[in-house]
Amino acid sequence: MTRLGFASADFRSLKSFQKELPMSLVQLAMAARVHPVAAHRIPTLLTIVVPTYNESANIRLLAKRLDQTLGESGWEMVIVDDDSPDGTHAVAKGMARRDPRIRCLRRIGRRGLSGACIEGILSSSSPYVAVMDGDLQHDETILPQMLTALREGALDLVIGSRLVEGGDAASGFGRARQWISQMGARLSRLALRTDVRDTMSGFFMIRRDIADDLAPQLCTDGFKILADILATAGPGLRVEEVGYSFRERHGGESKLDAKVALDFLGLILNKITGGALPVSFVAFALVGMSGLAVHLTALYAAMQAGVDFVAAQAGATLISILSNFALNNALTYRAARLRGWLWARGLLTFCAICSLSAIANIGVAAWVFEREQTWIVAGLAGVAMGAVRNYAVSTKFVWRS
Ligand code: GDD
Ligand code: MN
Question: Which segments of the chain have a pLDDT < 70?
Fold first, then answer.
């Protein structure tokens, strides 16, 4: 019989599942319409989706720990790797060759934690799917407890939580990260109108049929797939949290950065506006605001240096367009980042788009001013028009995403 988890009291669900096996496995296979070749194997009850980017140093140990906790069979691990430069996919495929419980999905030309999780979930046909990080920060030993809660508690979703009893975030985070994480959780509780404490968790288990239903409405470009699931499913979802201690990352480094925070803000605004505002628009708009600061700084410097105003204004305009382009290329459209010759061509296209948007901006502002006579309203209307147009056209023609 299997070693591990089936024997543990926590893993009751899988154990009882096993008990359901009748004497003749071939009979069972026929009844369950399982292919007789597979009849001697316990069907996969749980898929563990592990999104990875540069986790080659960690995934072997993670698979080993899953085996220790979950036992020989009844589960599978799907590693969804975004073509990591450190060759995580090669390591994962090597593991999969030796272990039929492991699969690897290598994605090319795409980046994004949420998208990777969604594709991993969609590749599963088990009744339950878990998502967990590949760096051993999530405590795999609570998986059996999560599965039991999901199956016996008639729940749709169980969250591995740092913010309920038995949970702890201190060990895995520095003070600053802890504070940011808590603020994020508070903000998203408000925006998502949910009681869930750890909405920022990247560790959860969900009924696959529910995830399948939600998948077409989920954003693929964010980092916060759980917050998205909670927002999309609404208050009808039956959710419970199970506490665990967030550990320190095993090897490699975190990918959570400024862009991730911007994406998250974008996701919240996207949900508040009922999907009207695209997630990446927030990043685009913030880059635009930074362009204003760049413009004024450059203008000030040129004026101080005694440059003629019109020349200074023209120079500052060019510098701010260049800075907006570089920042959007590095942050907003990171997944479609342009390099070399394409970078130069993109910059020229971006300049042309910005010039045309400036005309649209002035046109709209003039039209509003004629009716409103308030310069601030007219000015803002023009800026909004220019920004939305810049965003829409740049997305289509410069970064083609
Ligand atoms: N496929 C893929 N593509 N995987 C990615 C990508 C990506 O673009 N970016 C990150 N990952 C993988 C990492 O390799 C890791 O396995 C997991 O996603 C989490 O990334 P980390 O970089 O380790 O995130 P973190 O530890 O800083 O953030 C953790 O805490 C957050 C809450 O504060 C994660 O658990 C987050 O999910 C969580 O929201
Ligand atoms: Mn991590």
Answer: 1-32, 34, 39, 170-173, 401
Question: If we measure between CA atoms, which residue out of 143, 262, 337 comes closest to residue 270?
Answer: 262
Q: Which atom of ligand 1 is nearest to the CA of 135?
A: 16
204 lines ligand 1 (CB under 6 A): no
Reported as a single tens digit per residue, the pLDDT across 332-341 is 888 789 999 9
Task: CATH number of the domain at 35, please.
Answer: 3.90.550.10
Total domain count, the chain? 2
324-328, Cβ contacts within 8 angstroms, sequence gap of 24 or more: 324/287, 324/288, 324/290, 324/291, 324/294, 324/350, 324/354, 325/350, 325/351, 327/287, 327/290, 328/283, 328/284, 328/287, 328/394, 328/399
Q: 165-207: per-residue pLDDT in tens? A: 888 876 666 777 777 777 777 877 887 888 899 988 999 999 9
Domain that holds residue 161: 3-272
Ligand nearest to the CA of 105: 1
